[in-house]
Design brief:
125 residues, alpha+beta, Nucleoside Triphosphate Pyrophosphohydrolase, eight-stranded mixed β-sheet, 3 helices, 20% helix, globular
Length: 125
């Protein structure tokens, strides 16, 4: 079984969370909505991966990133440990994918990967 460590940004603005839609050509979860982030590289800490992924995906650097409890999630062929960070910042995000700001109840109605849906459930909203 494969194991992944993933840094995830929970970017909120006005009570809404930022989600982006994966490209329809992606091998895993094509067209699903998700929080920005990505896999940790060898020797990289979760916060280092977070800042790298946010720069790569959104050309954005948060003003603050508060680490939240790790969430383990099991897919049929891979186990994932999400390292979530609640991020805030005033600069604009630049996302080449479809994206939007959603209230948590709206986000739950979107097509989300199981781990993202589980993470959304931990937010208590």
């Amino acid at each position: 079984m494969r194991h992944l460590e993933v840094a995830v940004a929970l970017v909120f603005q006005g009570g809404r969370c930022f989600l982006q839609r994966r490209d329809a050509r992606e091998r895993s979860f094509p067209g699903h909505w998700e929080f920005p982030g990505g896999k940790l590289e060898a020797g990289e800490s979760p916060v280092e991966a977070l800042y790298r992924e946010l720069e790569e995906e959104l050309r954005w650097k948060p003003d603050s990133a508060q680490e939240l409890p790790v969430l383990a999630f099991q897919y049929p062929l891979v186990s994932v440990r999400l390292h979530p960070f609640r991020c805030e910042g005033s600069s604009p995000l630049h996302c080449p994918l479809a994206w939007g700001w959603f209230q948590p109840r709206e986000a739950r109605r979107l097509r989300l990967p199981g781990a993202s849906l589980a993470l959304l459930g931990t937010l208590g909203t």
